[in-house]
Design brief:
- This protein folds into 3 domains: 106 residues, Rossmann fold (3-Layer(aba) Sandwich), CATH 3.40.50; 97 residues, no CATH class; 119 residues, Homeodomain-like (Arc Repressor Mutant, subunit A), CATH 1.10.10.
- 62% of the residues lie in helices and 7% in strands.
- Helix 5 packs across helix 7, helix 5 packs across helix 9 and helix 14 packs across helix 15.
- It starts with a strand and ends in a 14-residue tail after the last helix.
């Protein structure tokens, strides 16, 4: 089953497509039907589609801009464009962004279904290749992790342990393989009370703050001293910590965390995150980004919206940032800055902005 996201600002077209296509027969699941790009991106944060079916002309952000940002979130995403504009410029841009079909409105049901089936076929081929490579890498990571853990259990001397670690490190093909191996060790061995320490180890590995052999050796020594081998199930806290550290990464999404951080099914971790935190992952990510945006405005009023957007993981797209900021705070960035200026001018003794209640000051 392949997930599809439909985006068109005309309700009659969205509803017509929803009813016209037999999604199940094509092996497709319609995750959402959105009227604009902002709503589409919001949907993607919690439920990443395999296929994007957008119109070219959308309010606030064009369909091609949406595709460009969506591919950043999910590089394997396939797009089929529906457009009422038969222009070379649009078609050329669509090819640049990897759009597999550029269909003109009105198109026949058969044309659209054939385009969607082609997208499914491309996804299937890519999935098989990725799964093959992933399976090979997973076995290599697991083998290395087991070897390191075995060293931790049987080697009594710390210096000898470090030497053995260096020997094993030398058998790894790439630094990224060692990073994944360390993450596997930490995830497998830390207890529930060690979550913060485990996240610090992973952060150090990702940022290259120590030579990998030293980091692995210290980790194994710590784990041996703790004497814990129970597997931590506190992946929701891991998601929260990772989001707080990497909110400025444009590629950050629930799917990215599932594939690269906690190594679990995206739908499952999304449900557990909502149950534990009390809000969807997309809402938490939006709040994190917008609170940091507000702090940036307070600290440096001269910053432009496009600069803030880039610093909080929204690319250089001030219009998109403004839409999200208003959705979150109820006011535009311009009005928010005006409020800050009024407070600085002597109105700070008054009650805080009504939209500030409960948020970081």
């Amino acid at each position: 089953m392949y997930k599809l996201l439909l985006v068109d600002d005309e309700p009659i077209i969205r509803e017509g497509l929803e009813q016209m296509i037999d999604w199940e027969k094509l092996g497709l699941h319609l995750t959402a039907s959105c009227p604009n790009a902002v709503a589409a991106l919001d949907s993607m944060m919690d439920d990443m589609p395999d296929i994007l079916l957008p119109d070219i002309r959308l309010p606030g952000m064009t369909g091609l801009e949406l595709i460009q940002r969506a591919v950043t979130l999910h590089p394997m995403l396939q797009s089929v464009v529906l457009s009422g504009y038969d222009t070379f410029q649009y078609a050329q841009q669509a090819l640049k962004y990897g759009v597999i079909e550029y269909l003109l409105k009105p198109c026949s049901q058969e044309e659209l279904e054939q385009a969607l089936l082609r997208a499914c076929h491309i996804i299937d081929k890519k999935r098989k290749k990725v799964l093959y490579l992933y399976d090979e890498r997973r076995h290599r990571v697991q083998s290395l992790a087991d070897s390191f853990i075995d060293l931790m259990k049987r080697e009594p001397d710390a210096e000898q342990l470090k030497k053995q670690v260096e020997t094993l490190v030398g058998t790894a093909e790439t630094p990224s393989l060692l990073q994944e191996t360390l993450i596997a060790i930490v995830t497998k061995c830390i207890g529930s009370g060690q979550t913060e320490w485990g996240m610090n180890v992973i952060t150090d590995a990702m940022h290259g703050r120590s030579p990998m052999e030293e980091l692995i050796a210290r980790t194994l020594i710590r784990l041996r001293k703790e004497g814990r081998t129970d597997r931590s199930n506190d992946f929701v806290q891991q998601m929260v910590n990772y989001t707080n550290l990497h909110y400025a990464d444009e590629a950050l999404s629930l799917q990215y965390i599932a594939d690269n951080v906690v190594y679990r099914n995206a739908d499952y971790i999304g449900r557990e995150f909502t149950r534990s935190v009390g809000q969807k992952f997309s809402s938490y990510l939006l709040a994190t980004r917008m609170e940091h945006a507000k702090l940036l405005m307070r600290r440096d009023p001269s910053l432009h919206s496009y600069e803030i957007a880039e610093r909080v993981g929204l690319g250089e797209n001030p219009h998109y940032f403004s839409q999200l900021f208003r959705k979150y705070t109820g006011v535009t960035p311009k009005d928010y800055r005006r409020g800050l200026e009024e407070q600085a001018a002597g109105l700070s003794e008054k009650e805080p902005f009504p939209w500030e209640e409960g948020f970081i000051r």
